[in-house]
Amino acid sequence: MKPLAKLRFALLAPLVLTAFVSAPSFAQTEVIIRQAPPPERVEMVPVQRPGYAWDRGHWRWQHGAYAWVPGHWQPMMRNARWVPGHWESRGPNWYWREGHWMR
């Protein structure tokens, strides 16, 4: 390999690796179904836990049926508030919107 080609490779390789590392890892598959979720279950919210936000329980579509996922604590993100996941109705379809931190 020529010296200029080696230098070019040495400079470009870290840039390519950085692009892979910095790609968003929060991409999720979208869940779209026609069957409405059951009513939410009533959960007892535990006593406030410093540094955490409560993520309430919800119905998840799993193996062709709804399955209950109990609530849990999410570690706090600085200067953000937790938006819980929820099902949205659009026409005959139901879409799952994953919980996320809103700045």
Please give the structural blueprint.
Layout (H helix, E strand, L loop, with lengths): L2 H20 L9 E2 L18 E4 L2 E5 L2 E5 L2 E4 L5 E3 L2 E5 L2 E5 L2 E3 L1
Antiparallel strand pairs: 1-8, 2-5, 3-4, 6-9, 7-8
Protein name: YXWGXW repeat-containing protein
Keywords: Signal
InterPro entries: YXWGXW_rpt
The count of DSSP E runs of length 2 or more, i.e. the number of strands, is 9
Helix coverage percent: 10-25%
| Lateral strand order in the biggest sheet | 1-8-7
Biggest sheet overview: 3 strands, antiparallel
Q: Calculate the mean pLDDT score and round it.
A: 83
Name the shape in a single word: flat
Uncertain spans, ≥5 residues at pLDDT below 50?
A: 15-25
Rg over CA atoms: 21 Å
Count up the helices. Answer: 1
Proportion of residues in extended strands: 25-35%
Content-based structural category: alpha+beta
Give the helices and strands as they follow along the chain. HEEEEEEEEE
Distance between the termini: 49 Å
If you had to describe this structure to a student in words, what would you say it looks like?
- There is one protein chain.
- The protein is an alpha+beta fold and 103 residues long.
- The protein has a domain of 56 residues.
- It is 19% helix and 35% strand.
- It is built from 1 helix and 9 strands; from the N terminus they run αβββββββββ.
- The strands form 4 sheets. A 3-stranded antiparallel sheet has the order 1-8-7, with no helix packed on it. A two-stranded antiparallel sheet has the order 2-5. The chain has a two-stranded antiparallel ribbon with strand order 3-4.
- It is flat, with a radius of gyration of 21 Å.
- The chain starts with a helix and ends with a strand.
- The relative contact order is 0.18.
- About 11% of the residues have low confidence.
- Keywords: Signal.
- It holds the Pfam family WXXGXW.
- This is YXWGXW repeat-containing protein.
- It comes from Pseudomonas nabeulensis.
